[in-house]
Design goal:
Blueprint: H1 2-22, E1 51-53, H2 60-67, H3 71-77, E2 91-93, E3 115-118, E4 125-128, H4 131-142, E5 187-189, E6 201-204, E7 210-212, E8 217-223, E9 231-236, E10 241-251, E11 258-259, E12 264-268, E13 277-284, E14 287-289
Antiparallel strand pairs: 1-2, 3-4, 5-6, 6-13, 7-12, 8-9, 8-11, 9-10, 10-12, 10-13, 13-14
């Protein structure tokens, strides 16, 4: 037994030494896969198609919110009347219908045929052209206007630019909303105008902190069906303004519930987020606006 150990021990030592001398380079490092940034990709669930099929838990407000449309515009495109009841499996038209083209081509109008009339005095034939009808046809073709003009708003009527300006007291002209901070805390992400930028502000805080309604209104959505927002609340304040509260730990209100400014509506959480925070949005006629321009 001792002779066998003495014989094999040198071989083991030589092998070990060879392994040590060959490991001159650093140990390999495993490449880490970059994780998806949930805030940069917040709009990954947005609706860009021309048509959408209603899923369980959807409301017309939540569909309009994801599509960046005003709910009245979306309801009008689909002939849905208030209170905007929809059903799973229903097809919702998101894009505006194509403008109706003038099917009549002025160039294809046949030329007026000459009319031969007898001259009473000379007995000869003269050609009389119906110039009046041809002139009328040409003038009607020139005055043809497109169905929709380029300066129309999404509501189908022209709105002066000054009517969209905000006044100094954080209200819109003719449709005032008194805004309040939904929670106090450090702003960790601000509003961005980029296509895939942040569509609101993110406010950091403690798990379970009180989330308040930013203004009086009606809860039109309370759920977790919108990917990227977690537990989400959407409040309608008037015909123009909505506010949204995302990543909540717990929702404390229900749809169709009337809410007062400062009333607690949720507890802060981290649903669909990496840490406890409130993602807060204000939307004017379906379009995201910078909340910091409205909050006092």
């Amino acid at each position: 037994m001792d002779r066998w150990l003495n014989a094999i021990l040198p071989v083991v030592l030589v092998t070990a030494l060879a392994a040590c001398t060959s490991s001159s380079g650093p140990a390999p490092v495993t490449t880490l896969e970059l994780r998806e940034n949930p805030y940069r990709e917040r709009n990954r669930g947005s609706l860009n198609a021309s048509q959408y099929q209603v899923q369980r838990g959807d409301t017309l407000y939540s569909i309009a919110f994801r599509a960046g449309l005003d709910v009245r515009t979306l309801a009008g495109r689909n002939n849905i009347s208030s209170p905007y009841t929809i059903y799973p499996g229903q097809k919702i038209q998101l894009s505006a219908p194509a403008a109706t083209k003038n099917s009549r081509n002025p160039r294809s109008t046949p030329a007026a045929k000459p009319v031969v009339a007898k001259s009473a005095s000379a007995g000869r034939s003269s050609v009389v052209t119906k110039k009046s009808n041809q002139t009328k046809s040409n003038s009607s073709a020139k005055t043809t206007k497109p169905v929709a003009s380029s300066n129309q708003t999404r509501y189908g009527q022209t709105t002066p630019a000054e009517s969209r300006q905000k006044t100094a007291n954080n209200t819109s002209v003719g449709n005032k909303v008194q805004w309040h901070w939904p929670v106090k805390g450090k702003i960790v992400s601000r509003f961005s105008t980029l296509e895939h930028g942040n569509k609101g502000v993110d406010i950091a805080g403690q798990d379970g902190s009180r989330i308040n309604a930013a203004a009086d209104g009606l809860v039109v959505y309370a759920g977790s069906a919108l990917r990227g927002y977690g537990n989400l609340i959407i409040i309608k304040h008037n015909d123009d303004y909505l506010s949204a509260y995302a990543h909540n730990k717990r929702i404390l209100v229900a749809e169709r519930q009337q809410i007062k400014a400062g009333q607690q509506i949720a507890e802060m959480g981290s649903t669909d987020a990496t840490d406890s925070r409130l993602h807060f949005e204000i939307r004017f006629r379906g379009k995201s606006v910078d909340p910091l321009r409205y909050l006092p």
